[in-house]
Amino acid sequence: MATATATATIPTPILPSEPEPESHLRESSTTLNPTPISPKSLPDLLSTHSLSTYNCHICFSPPTNATMTPCGHVACGPCLFTAVKTALRRESMMMGGAM
């Protein structure tokens, strides 16, 4: 009785010999160019993306002098300034110094 042996082949990924370092820049630059907004559609855009739809993450009210943090949160300028100043003062007090 003959037995058949199955051999499985594992596909090898095909990698380029040398990547083109600027090829991804050319591809992405076309996607980064925004489509111009017509002046007629601007009021519609602003009504759906108005800052009044956001709330400050500190005082929970619509932001005054809105400021966006690097992580994307929107807060009132004065609220954010006070929060950062308080955090720095608290950290200084915990370290034993005074501000």
From TrEMBL:
GO terms for molecular function: zinc ion binding. The keyword Protease does not apply. Gene3D superfamilies: Zinc/RING finger domain, C3HC4 (zinc finger) (3.30.40.10). The keyword Cytoplasm does not apply. Residues 1-12 have a biased composition (Low complexity). Residues 1-44 are annotated as: Disordered. Coiled coil: none annotated. Residues 56-85 form the Zinc finger C3HC4 RING-type domain. InterPro entries: Znf_C3HC4_RING-type (IPR018957), Znf_RING/FYVE/PHD (IPR013083). Keywords: Metal-binding, Zinc, Zinc-finger. This is Zinc finger C3HC4 RING-type domain-containing protein. It comes from Lentinula detonsa. The lineage of its organism: Eukaryota, Fungi, Dikarya, Basidiomycota, Agaricomycotina.
